[in-house]
């Protein structure tokens, strides 16, 4: 095909997809409030938040531990082990916390949302809801999306604290950095305006994006087993790449 | 208890723990407000503060008593530091402040040396006796030039 | 309008189907009964794939109508059109005195309260217990108290012959039980029309008879208009008041007797295939090329 035609076709496709996603998001937002389904939200928070907790805490601890290990060996050369807490804290809070949490949650919960909605569509459960005059956007999609948006900052914060604990365990308990100095290092270097607010905002944005990507792919999947598997794969791939790309631009804009 | 109630409880717990984590990160680590007693605003002016940061600790004899709350330049281009100290402190008005470094490359902080005067520092008062931060590079430069001078 | 008039509709060439006239031709019981659902000139295409190209049919009030036809002839699609789950590209569907194809989704939500649907695999919500599934329509659309809901649900369970299933999840049920639960859920709001998609697929012969009896009993008690998509010719013959045969772009309608006596080769082929004995494969090839 003529590359210009190809580019044009691709552009039309991408713009179309954005349009459909936006319209889907707006419809879901409207449906989420009429009526607001607290019970369903709790159910999905359990599925998405609580059941991601172990993997988040464990990964956070190990990531923090490896930061402690690497940071220590680098800093010890200059006799600056006291900066270990500062280094681990800044890396975790600004970058790794929200990003790794988003990647893990995309793989753990985003894929499950997409597969769940796609298979509900394939087995006519969504049509069944419509037949009961229940809007599936409000009953299925919105609780999933809201739970994802709520859970992401909470999980990210827990990941960061777990990581700081991991860094502490390796740095102070195994390698001998003074525990008080580790903690002081964290406290002095971290500020709410520069680091914590940005970190929470990042996690929230990732939550919104992953929620949208996973529910959209689940909802629009074709009604067969292939559709379910495609929805899952697309969610994980697109969700992860989006997280990384958006993270770069957020960091660039936030620090300027 | 039914399964539903247990699940509700677990979800509630999850949200609560998550909120505590966010609060801890914001307030305790991020210092959204200084956790600990405060209330005594004291100023100090330095020629050179080096790498002193906002929220750097203020210590007396190594014990933390407050933190740096503002760093600004005054009209004559001196660095003017605002500190928030424990209001229960009764500091003599001839106390001195020094910017020290923890370790060779560690974080900088302010150490206050209490004086012997009968009069106390009032809130909003200024510590007049200050000792600037030591800039490692200048120190090394001076040592090297001194060594050079000896050789000639 | 007679059935034969309808047969001509949507045939762009104007050629009549090879339906012999005379005794045994699907006759016009429809025109004598008040129609509850009336589809006129439906056209629907997915890309180049034309599902319907001017299809018309009527379903009588209070009757059990069975839609039969080859796989891929759009039987389930027709049900979804009547349920307003999808919209045709052209054509009208009248349910009672309401035209449903032009309704926005918000109105369709209200309209669907008049209709119950029993999906092929039950379409029960996997994450909810059987009780919650059946109670859902009441919780969503009525202001009944918890106690009234419980009574109503157990009444429906009794009607479909279920007991002690409240706490089970749909995944723990057998195919026949899922059908019954789905039937209880479809009927709990007392709809005036019940749409049933392949009620007998995946059931053993005894379960088939049990579900048949349930449907007949249901119609007896409630007078609901039933529209079934059914592959199972023997069971269609047992329960149907009216058979709607989708052939290509047209429909042939008639009572069971009329269909059995029909000399239309495709109707014959369908009926013969369900009975023991040889069939003539050429009939099927002919039908496929037409689809």
Q: What characteristics describe this protein?
A:
heterotrimer, A: 256 residues, mainly alpha, 9 helices, 0% strand, B: 152 residues, alpha/beta, 28% helix, elongated
Give structural notes.
Chain A is an all-alpha fold and 256 residues long. Chain A has one domain. In chain A, 86% of the residues lie in helices and 0% in strands. Chain A contains 9 helices and no strands. The longest helix of chain B has 27 residues. In chain B, 25% of the residues are buried. In chain B, strands 7-1-4-3-2-6-5-8 form an 8-stranded mixed sheet, with no helix packed on it. Chain B folds into 2 domains: 33 residues; 98 residues, no CATH class. Chain C starts with a helix and ends with a helix. Chain C contains 12 helices and 10 strands. Helix content of chain C is 40%, strand content 22%. Chains in contact: A-B, A-C.
Question: Nutshell version of this structure?
Answer:
The complex is a heterotrimer of chains A (256), B (152) and C (291). Chain A is mainly alpha-helical and 256 residues long.
Can you lay out the helices and strands and say which pair or pack?
The complex is a heterotrimer of chains A (256), B (152) and C (291).
Chain A: H1 3-33, H2 38-48, H3 53-76, H4 84-122, H5 125-131, H6 136-174, H7 179-189, H8 192-219, H9 225-255
Helix pairs in contact in A: 1-6, 2-6, 3-4, 3-6, 4-6, 4-7, 4-8, 4-9, 6-8, 8-9
Chain B: H1 3-29, E1 39-46, E2 57-60, E3 63-73, E4 79-86, E5 96-101, E6 108-113, E7 126-127, E8 129-131, H2 136-151
Parallel strand pairs in B: 1-7, 2-6, 5-8
Antiparallel strand pairs in B: 1-4, 2-3, 3-4, 5-6
Chain C: H1 3-8, H2 29-32, E1 35-46, E2 49-60, E3 64-69, H3 75-82, E4 90-95, E5 98-99, H4 105-111, E6 115-118, H5 130-141, H6 146-159, H7 175-187, E7 193-197, H8 205-222, E8 225-229, H9 233-239, E9 242-247, E10 250-254, H10 256-261, H11 265-274, H12 281-290
Parallel strand pairs in C: 3-8, 3-9, 6-7, 7-8
Antiparallel strand pairs in C: 1-2, 1-4, 4-5, 9-10
Helix pairs in contact in C: 5-6, 5-7, 6-7
């Amino acid at each position: 095909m003529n590359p210009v035609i190809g580019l044009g076709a691709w552009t039309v496709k991408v713009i179309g997809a954005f349009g459909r996603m936006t319209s889907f998001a707006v419809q879901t937002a409207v449906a989420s409030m009429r009526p607001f389904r607290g019970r369903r939200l709790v159910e999905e928070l359990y599925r998405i938040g609580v059941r991601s907790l172990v993997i988040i805490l464990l990964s956070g601890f190990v990531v923090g531990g490896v930061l402690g290990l690497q940071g220590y060996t680098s800093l010890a050369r200059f006799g600056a082990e006291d900066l270990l807490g500062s280094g681990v804290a800044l890396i975790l809070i600004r970058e790794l916390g929200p990003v790794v949490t988003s990647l893990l949650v995309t793989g753990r919960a985003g894929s499950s949302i997409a597969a769940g909605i796609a298979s509900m569509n394939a087995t006519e459960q969504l049509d069944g809801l419509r037949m009961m005059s229940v809007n599936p956007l409000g009953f299925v999609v919105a609780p999933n999306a809201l739970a994802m948006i709520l859970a992401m900052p909470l999980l990210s914060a827990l990941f960061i604290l777990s990581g700081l604990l991991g860094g502490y365990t390796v740095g102070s308990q195994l390698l001998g950095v003074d525990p008080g100095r580790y903690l002081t290092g964290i406290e002095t270097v971290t500020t709410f305006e520069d680091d914590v607010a940005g970190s929470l905002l990042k996690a929230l944005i990732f939550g919104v994006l992953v929620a949208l990507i996973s529910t959209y792919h689940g909802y629009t999947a074709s009604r067969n087993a292939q559709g379910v598997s495609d929805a899952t794969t697309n969610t994980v791939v697109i969700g992860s790449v989006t997280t990384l790309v958006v993270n770069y631009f957020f960091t660039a804009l936030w620090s300027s | 208890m039914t399964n539903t109630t247990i699940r509700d409880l677990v979800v509630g717990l999850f949200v609560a723990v998550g909120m505590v984590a966010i609060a801890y990160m914001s307030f305790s680590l991020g210092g959204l407000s200084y956790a600990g007693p405060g209330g005594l605003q004291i100023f100090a002016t330095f020629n050179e503060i080096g790498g002193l940061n906002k929220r750097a600790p203020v210590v007396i004899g190594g014990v933390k008593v407050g933190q740096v709350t503002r760093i600004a330049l005054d009209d004559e281009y001196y660095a003017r530091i605002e500190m928030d100290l424990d209001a229960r402190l009764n500091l003599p008005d001839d106390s001195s402040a020094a910017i020290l470094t923890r370790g060779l490359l560690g974080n900088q902080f302010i150490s206050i040396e209490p004086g012997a005067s009968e009069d106390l520092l009032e809130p909003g008062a200024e510590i007049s006796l200050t000792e600037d931060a030591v800039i490692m590079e200048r120190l090394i430069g001076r040592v090297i030039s001194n060594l050079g001078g000896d050789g000639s | 309008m007679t059935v034969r008039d309808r047969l001509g509709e949507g045939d762009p060439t104007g050629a009549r189907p090879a339906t012999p006239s005379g005794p045994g031709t699907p006759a016009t019981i429809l025109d004598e009964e008040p129609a509850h659902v009336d589809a006129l000139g439906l056209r629907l295409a997915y890309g180049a794939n034309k599902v319907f190209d001017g299809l018309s049919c009527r379903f009588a009030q209070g009757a059990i109508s069975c839609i039969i036809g080859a796989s891929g002839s759009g039987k389930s699609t027709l049900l979804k059109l009547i349920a307003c789950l999808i919209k045709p590209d052209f054509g009208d569907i009248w349910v009672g005195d309401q035209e449903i194809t032009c309704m926005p989704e918000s109105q369709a939500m209200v309209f669907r309260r008049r209709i119950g649907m029993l999906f092929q695999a039950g379409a029960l919500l996997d994450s909810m217990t059987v009780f919650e599934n059946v109670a859902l329509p009441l919780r969503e659309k009525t202001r009944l108290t918890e106690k009234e809901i419980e009574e109503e649900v157990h009444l429906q369970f009794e009607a479909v012959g279920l007991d002690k299933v409240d706490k089970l999840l749909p995944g723990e049920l057998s195919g026949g039980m899922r059908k019954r639960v789905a039937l209880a859920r479809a009927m709990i709001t007392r709809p005036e029309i019940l749409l049933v998609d392949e009620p007998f697929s995946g059931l053993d012969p005894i379960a088939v008879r049990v579900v048949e009896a349930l449907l007949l009993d249901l119609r007896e008690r409630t007078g609901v208009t039933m529209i079934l998509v059914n592959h199972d010719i023997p069971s269609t013959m047992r329960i149907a008041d009216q058979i709607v045969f989708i052939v290509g772009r047209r429909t042939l309608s008639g009572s069971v007797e009329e269909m059995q006596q029909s000399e239309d080769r495709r109707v014959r082929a369908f009926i013969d295939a369900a009975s023991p004995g040889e069939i003539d494969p050429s009939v099927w090839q002919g039908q496929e090329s037409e689809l």
